[in-house]
Design brief:
Blueprint lengths: L1 H19 L4 H15 L5 H13 L4 H41 L8 H25 L3 H16 L3 H19 L16 H24 L3 H15 L7 H9 L7 H11 L9 H33 L3 H5 L2 H30 L3 H15 L5 H15 L1
Helix pairs in contact: 1-4, 2-4, 3-4, 4-11, 4-12, 5-11, 5-14, 5-15, 5-16, 6-7, 6-14, 7-14, 8-9, 8-12, 9-10, 9-12, 11-12, 15-16
Amino acid sequence: MNNIKSWLEILGVSAKLGLTSFGGPVAHLGYFYNEYVRRRKWMDEQSYADLVALCQFLPGPASSQVGIGIGLIRGGWIGALAAWIGFTLPSAVVMALFAYLIQGTDTLNAGWIHGLKLVAVAIVAQAVWGMGQKLAPDRSRATIAILAAVMVLLWPTALSQLIVVFAAGVAGLVLYRSTNATAIADTQVPVSRKAGAACLLIFAALLFLLPLLREAFPSFRLALFDSLYRAGSLVFGGGHVVLPLLERETVPSGWVSREQFLAGYGAAQAVPGPLFTFTAYIGAVADGWQGALVATLAIFLPAFLLVGGALPFWTLVRSLPWAQGALAGVNAAVVGILLAALYDPIWTSAIRGALDFAIAAILFVMLIFWKLPPWVVVIAGALAGAFLG
């Protein structure tokens, strides 16, 4: 009975966060801190900071992984599932409904949809600005970021991104391996190292076996699951950084058009919760509610496996200087990949003239300097597009 009460409490608290957490991954971590650490005292500050650091180290949606980790520590695997459902379901449902709204109509040609594309320009530019200052603040890491952007733009394939991330990790290992490792505290989690190793094995097995199954048993939903599982497995930085991976996995295949992709991405900025629920929209456009369900499960499954697999080992691994050095290089490359995505497909599809540039610049200023909430900027962009369209 106590376990059930704890699981329901986790579900209720995470659902409240899923309905109110606007502003992207960094803002989500602030909401989590206020709710889980300061108000409910489910974790102490050091343990929370360590969990955030671990999830920044792992690929996938960092804020969702922090929520899953808190649920796992608080209530085991069912607690982790409850935390994920509560935080993810509200925005996933809204994004799937938006997909139904635009289908079968001429909505994509409406002025307010073009305004959402301009919002996407401002939002991603803000992400590049903020992440660049944090993850590429010096000459060597800025160079890694620019080289990553150039490589991805000149060789626009999913393989190029993997090669760039790997090369950046090697560069970070060489350049920053002598950096002093950050000391972290041990945290007790209800997952054994054996179970953690099993999670990591399943994660790797799915990553390599799904493409083979996709070829052996042609199926749209299996292909969708494979593409989005891979995107959730290989993107560092979460949130906006998954954009180029998703675009290259879904648009060339014809599952969604570029216009649908950008419209959904712009709409995703107006809803609370994780940005990865953008995939619910992609799945719904491509295959109705079944596609939305498959896409959502696929993009978040790696987060479950990685958090469950890494938690039993995190203190040991993150204390190693070479691991932190490699991560420094990878994070710089993430900035470059996002910069490339800002140009193509976002800028090339949304900015059609001086007026579009002016609106996007105003929206960018509203985000960066006026520090308005993203949902306000989304409404402003949609209204500007509708008025001028």
